[in-house]
Specification:
This protein is of the alpha+beta class. The protein is built from 3 helices and 8 strands; from the N terminus they run ββαβββββαβα. A hairpin with a 2-residue loop joins strand 1 and strand 2.
């Protein structure tokens, strides 16, 4: 079993992950052998520069999807949704927000658990 604590930040597979939520998502992707990359690009949204978390490419190495990981803060999630929508509209790349709540759901099917110490 793997226990993921809230304060985790550090290197995983050569990437510096900034939170336990990102680490948990990376472990989920690896469990299902989903190829991913981390913070590959910065996007100019017109009102700020934005560097999303996870990047997914097709077999021709074209970026096809971005996933941003956020915690439980409602305002932070709202702003991230706005930013991801801007990327979708401006750059025509599918984007998804995965929050703490979604991480708990996806972890229910895994042989290890996601535990956040409060």
């Amino acid at each position: 079993m793997i226990k993921v604590n809230r304060g985790y930040a550090g290197f995983y597979k050569g990437y510096y992950l900034r939170s336990s939520y990102e680490y948990a998502f990376a472990k989920y992707l690896d469990f299902y052998s989903i190829q991913w990359s981390y913070e590959d690009q910065v996007f100019d949204l017109g009102y700020k520069l934005y560097k999303p978390d996870f990047f997914f490419y097709d077999k021709d190495n074209r970026l096809v999807k971005i996933v941003e990981i956020k915690a439980r803060n409602t305002e932070v999630k709202k702003n991230a949704r706005r930013d991801l929508k801007t990327i979708e509209e401006k750059y025509h790349i599918k984007c998804e927000l995965v929050s703490y709540e979604e991480l708990l759901k996806i972890y229910k099917e895994l042989p290890f658990f996601f535990n956040i110490n409060h």
